[in-house]
What we know:
B: 10 helices; about 0% strand
Amino acid sequence: MNDYLWDKTGEPDEDVKELEELLGSLAYRPRPLELPEPLPRHARMSHSSAWTRIAAIAAALFLMLLAGASLMLIRQRTVTPTQHAVTPQPSPLQMETQQHTAAAPKANENDAIRTPNNLLEIKRPRNGSRSTARQVALSRSRRQPSKRRLNEKPAPSNQETAQNVTPLRGRELTDEERQAKDQLMLALRFASANLRYVQEQVREVGIQEKPR
Amino acid sequence: MYEVEVTGDLLRIVSSNGGGQTAPAPSASAVDSVEARLVEAVRRDGDREAFGQLYNAYARMVHGILLARVPYAEVDDLVQDVFLHAFKKLGALRDPAAFGPWLAMITRNRAMDFHRRTRDTMELTDTFAAAARMTPQAEANEVLALIRELPETYREPLILRFVEGMTGPEIAERTGLAPASVRVNIHRGMKLLRERMTRSGAAKERKR
């Protein structure tokens, strides 16, 4: 197949040949390239600039992690003391278990198993074998279903618990907290500045490499 | 050895472009690897000679792309401007083997910048008219004006083919476009150009 127009193979059409000759007079005429004498810095800095960009991203991520960790630490510090101050109200399960314990014959204090939060107290049977929580639950289910007493105090709702926790805004910050807050703000400022720099670099590269 | 190899390859590329039909064009991957090595040399050491070789290999492409968009009288200066810009920004090129498509994109953007700059000062038609008066070949300019009236997709491959004397595969390889697209665009563009030339010739006959 004659495809002179595509790859200049075969016999050319007359009008194609004429066009080549006519328009060939407008073709590029070699001319020496004039480059500036001092070499542009960034023409040679490709690798280092790439590393700078990677380092900036890593630094930004590190600072963001640091800021997050500081924030969590501050929250923990401000909330924990007030939470300790709140006396835990007994739950219905705890009250029932306590009643069960009181009804049973008195045993040695050492026989009682205490959970870390002091929420569940399980009495050991006399034969010395340990009673598990499952066994207690089974024994409870065998009993008659107990009616909830009218004077029984219900467990505190989430709203009540929230009221008992002192809000951070209302009170004065301690020196340590203020210092931590300042550090956090500084870290956030660094992180945002780094992110802005990275964003600008990425945008610049995008403009250069993408068609407008 | 490295320098000789690179120079030899490039000379072969340039001669095949210039001579047209005699020397077979090197494969795309070979050209890519040579280009990539040259680009790396420029980026690593600021090698001016290597950049000069890239300039020799790509100046015709840049000239053709500009000619499809800006007046003839402005093209030579803009070619220099494009290469200068490319030299400064070569560090931003991610893939050294994609130098051709990257340079083609810079060229198109520079042509757009040119129109943005000149929009306030002069009308486009005046610019082209002035350019037409400045060039010696009035007939060539008429045909060039007809090509410029074609849709943008056909303009660039036709000018690279007829003005710069590049073959279809060469255009595809240098600009990074798909060979099939370039082929279709050249053929469709040629068909449209023939129609317009016939219409324009008939109009001239009528005027006489």
